[in-house]
Design a protein that fits this description.
Two copies of one chain form a homodimer. Chain A is an alpha/beta fold. Chain A has helices spanning 15-29, 49-62, 78-89, 106-112, 131-139, 183-196, 236-239, 262-273, 279-287, 291-318, 341-352, 378-392, and strands spanning 36-37, 100-103, 122-127, 143-148, 167-171, 199-203, 229-234, 247-250, 256-257, 260-261, 322-324, 330-334, 354-355, 357-358, 369-373. Chain A has two domains: 5-46 and 292-392, Alpha-Beta Complex (Aspartate Aminotransferase, domain 1), CATH 3.90.1150; 69-290, Aspartate Aminotransferase, domain 2 (3-Layer(aba) Sandwich). Chain A contains twelve helices and 15 strands. In chain A, the strands form four sheets. Chain A has a seven-stranded mixed β-sheet, with helices on both faces. In chain A, strands 11-12-15-14 form a four-stranded antiparallel β-sheet. A two-stranded parallel ribbon of chain A has the order 1-13. In chain A, α2 (49-62) runs antiparallel to α9 (279-287) and α3 runs parallel beside α9.
């Protein structure tokens, strides 16, 4: 037996471990300090009451022979898929029910979708990037090329027609940069993909943070996307499901080549390697789309959006260049005084007792940048912002 | 972009669709008929009260800021892994905590584990077989060879030292045949695997049905297994979790080759392509291992075991050859009068209005055999057995 030696080519990413190490080393050598964390990408508010109610009701269903649920459909229950279809319809996008696949999260699907593509494909990812796009492809031995996201292009790289790619990752609003594409810019990516015969894997996990009407919340707002794109979405950030685990993936029927249909291949993949999302969780997820559920999750989202706006306003006042914050829970800022990412990390930790995430951890173009997140509590965020302002005010 | 063309080599399996079609065609042309189903592999009893209690408590945790759970550990919460460790310890098997990985089910892990092995490995599966072992490997382009399971070897094939294999699938007690290996027989497989440098993927999903003291419930009861085996287990059949989704996989630290460690590679795979099992579900699963939980799930298991014993007793009385039934929820019988699998299916449907599963659907050696399952209700099982006895009594 031989192991898959491609695993030896995956870089160990010590980013979050190193962040945690430095923060705890500071705390233990500074007794009485109160370090505030704006580094995490995890939500902090509890599930909405309507979701809780639906989860309890579903648990009760599982307690009685008459309502007990065994194996569910691989692609998710129709009650949830109909709700997701309605959610798209409310934004002007018509989907067929069989184009919607419920899963245990966007991260699983973004990795597992690669099963249906050849390992000979060339993969294009932006730099800086969510490391999972890179690592999942290295595991399978695919060649990876990078699109530079920089301050010059506002961390929104555009297609280079002199470069061929087969599989293209786009995350908008972006993690880590918070930058989001307009419909017009996405249209250029869709046209490029259709010219190259490429597929776009579109990570829409942060779509619910988009406020600006010109920005896309789904790639299917763009003509031609049904021929080249797969969209991944999640309840994690929308409804606080990071520990409850539910997402969905949209694969249009038009995404085909020869006799191969991406939609049918994904159903085959899921029915062979997956047994569906817990009934209880799907009932909870469906409650997100009720009138009351929507009202409640938007109240939670407003908290995170206010946090993001507060951080962004501070950057404006401090005259610090940044992307994100307005249509994203992430603020990606240029480190002041040309500090390096880790240099600024230490400066902020030692002088303001605030922890963020060094941009260098997301790729070479992240050097000199820094990520702050809006998922902390309102109190922590407000105090952290006030400390940052005090420290960096010239 | 090219799709993964290996998908074109996966055989469409119409087994359960064809069973459903024939059953519903019969029902619609025979008004007033009452067709009884002993074909399904899904549980029918509701979750145990202790599990329900734990699920409700966990939902409440998610409703309050102080107890809310975001992203959990990729490999599962320690409270559940400690319980699983205790479950193995009670059977005399010592595991380290980091050898236990919680997942959303044995089926997912049995497919996904292949990510850590080279696609050049030769895979050995029994025939007849759970189709997922075959299909997941065809998707990745691996060569598959078969070990014949037949009436002559009691549907328990033994290793052939003249054949080399890299990855070996063993399911015991077996689906579909219900046959289970003794420790001595498993030892031969372990020795063969260690000689060949192969890995055994051991599917223990039905271990809780083993009564006979000579039969293994875990491959780690066998010396040498820690050097060559991975064990997959599930709450699906043990505790009725088919729609609640939780399982676990044990990868010993000794399973290594060169610088590659299966345990470390799987953790890397899971942390890159998976975000853990819902907190709520893990709390429910942990309740299975409490004293009260164990008592309750064993009451449920006794129902299925009584059903299996009832079917097996009928076969004894009818002088029909079969495997399973005593240490398994499956009864795998030789079709009477040398009928073919589908011939017997139609005979039983038309003359006793009972539905089972034709063995031919599980592989060439399944022809002439038939699977009945013990997961129906006690009433349905008793009536179906009485009809079968009446029909087949000479």
């Amino acid at each position: 037996m031989n192991f898959n030696l491609n695993f030896n080519n995956i870089a160990e990413n010590y980013l979050f471990a190193e962040v945690a190490n430095r923060a705890s080393a500071y705390a233990s050598s500074h007794v009485g300090s109160r370090v505030l964390k704006l580094g995490i990408g995890d939500v902090t508010l509890p599930l909405a009451p309507e979701v809780i109610k639906a989860l309890h009701a579903a648990v009760d269903d599982m307690s009685k022979k008459e309502t007990f649920q065994g194996y569910g459909p691989y692609e998710g229950y129709d009650f949830l898929r109909e709700s997701i279809r309605g959610y798209y319809k409310s934004r002007g996008i018509e989907l067929a029910l069989n184009e919607i696949f419920v899963s245990d999260g966007a991260k699983s699907d973004l990795g597992n979708i690669l099963d249906i593509f050849s390992t000979n494909n060339v993969v294009l990812v932006p730099d800086p990037v969510y490391p999972v796009y890179v690592d999942t492809n290295i595991m399978a031995g695919r060649k990876i090329i990078y699109a530079d996201a920089t301050a010059e292009n506002g961390f929104l790289p555009m297609p280079d027609s002199s470069v061929h790619a087969d599989v293209i990752y786009i995350c908008s609003p972006n993690n880590p940069t918070g930058a989001a594409y307009t419909r017009e810019a996405l249209k250029e990516w869709v046209d490029y993909a259709n010219r190259e015969g490429a597929v776009i894997l579109y990570d829409a996990a942060y779509e619910c943070f988009v406020r600006d009407e010109n920005l896309a919340r789904s790639i299917f707002e763009v003509d031609g996307a049904r021929e080249c794109a797969i969209e991944f979405c999640s309840f994690s950030k929308t409804a606080g499901f990071t520990g409850t685990r539910c997402g969905y993936t949209v694969i249009p029927e038009q995404l085909k080549k020869g006799s191969c249909s991406a939609n049918k291949m994904w159903l085959r993949r899921q029915s062979t390697k997956f047994n569906g999302v817990p009934y209880i969780v799907q009932r909870g997820a469906a409650a997100v789309f009720t009138e009351k559920g929507q009202k409640e999750i938007h109240e939670n989202l407003e908290v995170y959006k206010r946090n993001a706006a507060l951080i962004a306003k501070a950057m404006d006042e401090l005259n610090i260049w940044y992307t994100g914050g307005k249509n994203s829970p992430y603020i990606w800022l240029k480190c002041p005084d040309n500090m390096g990412s880790w240099e600024f990390f230490d400066y902020l930790l030692n002088n303001a007792e605030v922890v963020g995430t060094p941009g260098a951890g997301f790729g070479k173009n992240g050097e000199g940048f820094f990520r702050l997140t809006a998922f902390g509590s309102e109190e922590v965020t407000a105090e952290a912002v006030s400390r940052i302002k005090k420290l960096l005010k010239k």
